[in-house]
Amino acid sequence: CVLCGRTDDCPEKYGEKRTYVEYNLTVHNYCLLMSSGIWQRGEEDEGVDGFLITDIRKEVNRAAKLKCNICKKKGASIGCVAPKCKRSYHFPCGIQKECIFQFMEDFRSYCWEHKPVQKFPDKECKGTSQCTICLDLVEQLPMYNVLKSPCCKNAWFHRECLQYQALSAGIFFFRCTVCNNKDKFQKEMLRMGIHIPEKDASWELEENAYQDLLHHYQHCDIKRCLCKKGRDYSEPDSKWEIKRCQSCGSRGTHLACSSMKSWEQNWECVECRSIFAKSGSYSKQKKRSLPTSEKTDGTNCFLEEPSPKCPRQSPGSQRSFLLQSPKMMCQNNSSSCSHLELPSSNRVSLSPQMSDRNWSLRKRELRKQQREVSNILKELKLQVSSKTTRLNINAENIWDSALKGFRQRKFSPTNTIEIKFTNCKNRSTKDTSKHRFFQLLMLRLQDSSLFEGSSTKNLSLDFQAVKENLYFEAGKMIAVSLVHGGPSPGFFSKTLFNCLVYGPENVKPALEDVADVDVAQTIRMIKYANSLSGLQSTVHDSYEFLAAAGCLRPITALCDKNMLVNDILVYHVIKRTISPLESFRQGLKTLGVLEKMQMYPDAFSSILCHKPPRLSAETVCDLFTIHSSSDVNQVEGADFWMSYLQDVESGESAITLEDILLFVTGSFSIPPIGFDPEPTIKFSHIRYPIGNRLLNCLELPITKAYKKFKSKMEFAIRNTLRLEGE
């Protein structure tokens, strides 16, 4: 640049660098604009944006005689406009020394000593807050690199963030990010040296930026699409025409798939109905059942409307069930493979509780959701390649070592993960270590400072965690655990889950979501105030808290308490943690998990908001597939196996069903994605049971008496787990 002498090409800092070959001239735009001895004497298309070439050369000659007060080199074309101040400097030097350049009117420049500063009361200069553009922390101090909004009390910005925002938005769209004020905000920012270019916003200038809005959504999103030609097929004026959601337009259904007889019928997708239901403005429509020919055994099968959540069985409850014969697979083609029939004496009769139709439907719905989640996660796992990434994990410091592993440059969520515990003397198989790693990590997350609450948790506000981007890492870890075969967290509150799926603006928090005892007590006092004077007294006592939360409102009637309680809940549970929530959401987008959560909220709610149900003998029995061979008679062995599961469930054994699962797979619970490979049972002529965790295979001994079978099982499992514990 002929004015500053630098070769830097940084449009954000120095403006566009232009080279004019015919004049042998290169100049930064900002250097030219801020030079003290030159004016635009030509038209816009003359010279350089109205600066005549002869004038530019005169200015270069004038500046060549002036020494920069910062770098001590010649060519200082910019001078401070303060009276009696004779300081001169190059534009880049002035930026480095924190001078102020006003890109308005006469394009004045102020040196570091005479520059304008923002003035505000001392009581506002304390603590830290979030920059409302980058959401990183910013100190509330009158500094060059920190600017405060003139129109909002609690809006602070980094200077660099504001400058980037101004360059992108232009003069027509640059405004306060909190209150949307334009005139007052732009005037103050220009005074403080923010350059606002006179141009349209960058997103408005992008060619075909809004082309996607011209496309109609053409896809059937009903879980059970009936069209044989596929979900994207649409034939106008027929039952296979696709009708879009009347509220959002981003979901669709074939008329036939939602049992609609004509195009004129209104239809809303699940997501929109859920939002309207939460806001109280949704009148519940009748569920539409399938055509008669497609109903199943007297059980109504509903389209589109999601089924209610299934109440989970409490850990202590016991329900008897009919143990069906386990799955069988043939290994010998010459032997016929059929279901094993249990002797009638060993069949367990159905109790009245199990025969209750409601419980049966709930159990069926729960299994359906588990299968649905498993299939979704298996679909996501197709992204995972065979390329491996090894993580060295210290079990005693699981969080720090996991964080270090996830942040290493070579880590990729799409790589197969191998775990090596660096503080373990005995070597475990890779898959077993991975199960254990994810279990320990989810437990550590549950007890971390990132979440608050007792049994169900919401996000907390931890400024240090926000600064270190830990909420993003936590979301990423949960997503990776789900797709790579680890457990789900199981401790999300319904409010947190709904914020992730439907957006915080569509969620109404409850008093149970408040973990802070003092805040909860304040809300209760307001909520249960039984007189206007009592309510006003409580509000007066809580003035500082309500003012800080932005929840002050005039109280003229007792009914005003309802709005006030809602304001406090929304602030404390949602608005206060909006930055952690957004960061957490970004982390959950890893491997496409958040997108699937939003598409299948019922299914994912069952694993993210609830701990896995306690294992039952029926669940474990269904989990294993028995491999049969011609040289072993396994009817008696299968009989012993199922009887043993019954004894364990009823408490007649020192072993638990979780111990059996751990013995075979290395996991206490069934991961949402299921096991890979699927657990199998093989009967062999061996002395004691063997759990092959690499193959998820349980080898069982063949015995003549059930008592001997039981003692061998308990001896092997108990001693194996005891040794591992040691």
Automatic annotation (TrEMBL):
Its pathway, per UniProt, is: Protein modification; protein ubiquitination
Task: Give the transmembrane region(s).
Answer: none
Organism, by scientific name, is: Atlantisia rogersi
> What Gene Ontology molecular function terms does this protein carry?
ligase activity; ubiquitin-protein transferase activity; zinc ion binding
Domain PHD-type: residue ranges: 1-115
Main subcellular localisation: nucleus
Compartments it resides in: Nucleus
| Protein name in UniProt | G2E3 ligase
Cellular component, GO, one term: nucleus
Q: Where is this region: Disordered?
A: 285-318
Q: Record's CDD domains? A: ePHD_PHF7_G2E3_like, PHD_PHF7_G2E3_like
